[in-house]
UniProtKB/TrEMBL annotation:
Cofactor(s) for this UniProt protein: pyridoxal 5'-phosphate
Species of the source: Thalassovita aquimarina
Coiled-coil residues: none
UniProt-listed InterPro entries: Aminotrans_3, Aminotrans_3_PPA_site, PyrdxlP-dep_Trfase, PyrdxlP-dep_Trfase_major, PyrdxlP-dep_Trfase_small
Taxonomic superkingdom: Bacteria
Single GO MF descriptor: transaminase activity
Family note: Belongs to the class-III pyridoxal-phosphate-dependent aminotransferase family.
Keywords tagged on the record: Aminotransferase, Pyridoxal phosphate, Transferase
Listed name of the protein: Aspartate aminotransferase family protein
Amino acid sequence: MKDSNFLKEMNARSVWHPMAHPADSQQNPPTIVTGAQGVRITDVDGHEVVDGVGGLWNVNLGFSCEPVKAAIAAQLDRLPYYSIFRGTTNDCVIELAEELRDFFAPDGLSRAFYTSGGSDSVETALRLARQYHKVKGEPGRIKYLSLKKGYHGTHTGGASVNGNANFRTQYEPLLPGCYHIPAPYTYRNPFNETDPEKLAQLCLQALEDEIAFQGAGTIAAMIMEPVLGAGGVIPPHESFMPGVREICSKHGILLIADEVITAFGRTGSWTGSRHWGVQPDLMCTAKAITNGYFPFGAVMISDAVAEVFEKDESGRAAIGHGYTYSGHPVGAAAALACLAETKRLNVKDNAAARGAELHEGLKSLQADLDLIGDVRGGHGLMCAMELVSDRATKAPIDKARINQVQEVAYQSGAMVRVSGPNIILSPPLVLTSDDAQVILSALRAGFDSL
């Protein structure tokens, strides 16, 4: 590794960072992370903090998961790569598919289509949904429904169903035929409704209304996160996702659960869909499937959808889609080891306990601080605070002030994530109670600095 002087001098000079303005990265150089152990990361100056971001929602087992590291190393020695396009496969993807089939059986999902990551998984699910209806003889079903505030990656299809203008405006025109429903977001919604159950029903009515307006026979799928993540950690009322499932089933619309964030225990349940008692038709996964150690993902497919493809005799079910790294043997080996360790540690239970602890801690901060307008969480290790300059008007806080909270929190022992007016927490699922308290005390120091 180059010395620290070189790294600091060249930081952001030749790199454009995702989700950042190139000029801003040059004026405010990113933190240079050079090491990690357990749930802690270390920067180029040797400063160590608890990682309240969990890499990027994906390092569920922390940075020291030896079984996954060992599996990657061994697979690189044995078979570092081979394609699984038609005619070839590898042993790891076959074994992994059987493990995933067992893991996702309660979700009604039994087939895996491998991808390179979350955005790829979303793109794959959107495409398979359209193809499913074509194979069934309903080629007019081409439209997609999704939630405002939802996040579904950055490919053109994913950006088109995204519900946040930040990921859309500069890239339009996007995919036609994508329509958005109000999110069950009690702090800000067009109905001015703060009761979660009533808001869920209003959003479901809006979904029914949009389906009637578009025509059910024109809609391929509804895509949604069981708990909206990057949009600010927005958990719906428990009636909402089951209501969406019922409406989709009634109208012959496929339900795609985007569980790139929520699968593998983050919500305190093994999947977000299971958390709400719902079986989707397709599920997008990635991130925690390899603990973030290797880019890999899988779209899980229900028996009913699989049957339409597998029984086709017209040729329309031939899948003209895939990635060079679909079913990468190193990624599959990593996923096998990661899934085994995820189950052995039963991380969903710790996620539920530590998530409740963090959520209560954030609510205590809110009680003391008027600039915390809303606290969201209570479903595993995904929490958020929405900061405002005025509680009465809900005017967002100045960017410089929220950045100061983040910086002082970092100097005080915790990395947290800023997204718009939100401070988001998504730490590893192996977080301890002591680690959670470090995050909370670091946040308080950040707020005290204002």
